[in-house]
Amino acid sequence: MSNSVQCIFENDAIVTANLSTKQYVENQKGLVCSLLVDGTHYMIIKKVDKQTTEMVRSVAGDVSRTLQGQKVKNATIDAIQLGEHFKNLSNEAVITAFTEGWELGAYQFTKYKSNEEPFKTALTYKNAETFEKAIQTGTIRAEATSFSRDLMNELSSTLNPETYPEVLREQFAHTTVQVKVLGKEKLEELEMNGVLTVGRGSKYKPSFVELVYEGDPSKPLVALVGKGVTFDTGGISLKSGRDLSDMRMDMGGSAAVAGAISLLAQSKAQVNVVALIPIVENAPDNTSVYPGEIITYKNGKTVQIGNTDAEGRLILADGLIRAGEYQAEYIVDIATLTGAIGNALGTELGGVFGDEALAYELKKLGDENGDFVWPMPLVDDYDSSLNSDYADMNNMSSLSMAGSITAALFLRRFVPENSKWLHVDMAGVMEKNKACGYYAKSATGYGARLLADFTTSVSK
Ligand code: BES
Ligand code: MN
Ligand code: ZN
């Protein structure tokens, strides 16, 4: 295969000059196709009907992954032609999106493949002298999302409540992000009883990590709370049946908030943000929490555990209480919280609950940045389904429906009074089951861009 490829567009003279070439390209399925003319290898980017930044990322991802598969070393594209192809979008937005899609399309998690070296086709722009910033932005966004993907793909034996804090320490070592690691003793002192209880059955001690980034301390404080369950077996209410190996990705919320902090710090964003990350493994053992037990939280609320598999909300409750201690003005929690959100929305978009106006703002940001969300209702009438005969509430609803809504209603009970709050359920979008666009067949890295853009947006 050739070592260098030129990316051109369907309306290029190289394609249109020859009728049979033109027809060949037109008849190819997909957004892009390969073409060999007079010994030169071209990638043809076809006409698109949707002029969106997501389309740009997808096209770039498809080209980049295809060329990677063909072991092509270098590719070039003309920035001006690229801008013209997506003329409804600004040139900067197109270059950023193309760069981001290119990098993410080449993403691979090859750590455990004995005979695969990571390989990427290098992209060079022509006529891009004025687009340096746009290229850099795309690179930063892809790096942050790849970091989230790496965390999610990693095995639970490697990334667990004891090692995860160290991984975060390393990631942020030479940055302006402060990493505060709270170990088990500190959790006891701070009465993080949800984390301590859920983590009880695991051979790994639970932990809680705080990532502080003060790009501009005068800005409203945004707290990003991410569920960090490094493996969810269900605990004593053991999961059964299907392949559970994906439950190592039950720390997807924590990967999203860590990725968001990385994105913000790398882009020197003028924001004031803290990520709050409760980390546990939900394991069955004779030391595990048993169904029926009651947790008393620091704020005095008591929760009976109806089902140890509804563990995410139990640890997020500590995160929300902690956000209150920080007096955060905005709180966004994100979690692979319920299978039910996948039933409702499928694999293409997450669900967002909470402050309605903010939820629609978040949807708009997601429509732009590719982390799609759809606003969901907090139905007050369902709230009483969380009542318990023995405690203030149960961690499981008595309803057999609306599982994502009742989970969100549970969280709402822990939201500090003076904070504006959103909850993102990303259980449906944590992974792709086939490679497509700029996604590999693995973890998506969902949420890093979404939460970074949200933080920037409320800090204007
Ligand atoms: N981590 C799961 C949710 C999940 C399911 C994430 C599928 C990704 C894919 C969560 O902890 C869980 O087990 N939720 C239960 C809640 C139920 C017991 C109330 C669920 O969704 O079934
Ligand atoms: Mn669970
Ligand atoms: Zn879980």
Tell me what the structure shows.
This protein is α/β, with parallel strands linked by helices and 460 residues long. It has helices at residues 13-16, 19-27, 53-69, 79-85, 91-105, 132-153, 164-171, 184-189, 193-198, 252-266, 312-325, 339-345, 356-369, 403-412, 448-458; strands spanning 4-9, 32-37, 40-45, 74-78, 122-126, 178-182, 207-214, 221-226, 228-232, 272-282, 294-296, 302-304, 330-335, 350-354, 373-375, 393-394, 420-425. Strands 6, 7, 8, 9, 10, 13, 14, 15 and 17 form a nine-stranded mixed β-sheet that branches. A five-stranded mixed β-sheet has the order 2-3-1-4-5. A three-stranded mixed β-sheet has the order 11-12-16. Strand 2 and strand 3 (40-45) form a beta hairpin. Helix 10 packs across helix 15 (448-458). Bound molecules: ligand BES, manganese (II) ion and zinc ion (ZN). Residues 232, 250, 307, 309-312, 336-340, 396, 403, 427, 430 line the site of ligand BES. The site of zinc ion has 5 residues, from strand 9.
Question: What Rg is obtained from the alpha carbons, in whole angstroms?
Answer: 23 Å
Q: Helical residue percent?
A: 25-40%
Which structural class is indicated by helix and strand composition? alpha/beta
What's the number of extended β-strand segments? 17
What layout of secondary structure does this protein have?
Layout lengths: L3 E6 L3 H4 L2 H9 L4 E6 L2 E6 L7 H17 L4 E5 H7 L5 H15 L16 E5 L5 H22 L10 H8 L6 E5 L1 H6 L3 H6 L8 E8 L6 E6 L1 E5 L19 H15 L5 E11 L11 E3 L5 E3 L7 H14 L4 E6 L3 H7 L4 E5 L1 H14 L3 E3 L17 E2 L8 H10 L7 E6 L22 H11 L2
Parallel strand pairs: 1-3, 1-4, 4-5, 8-10, 8-13, 9-10, 12-16, 13-17, 14-15
Antiparallel strand pairs: 2-3, 6-7, 7-10, 11-12, 14-17
Bound molecules: ligand BES, manganese (II) ion and zinc ion.
Manganese (II) ion binds next to loops.
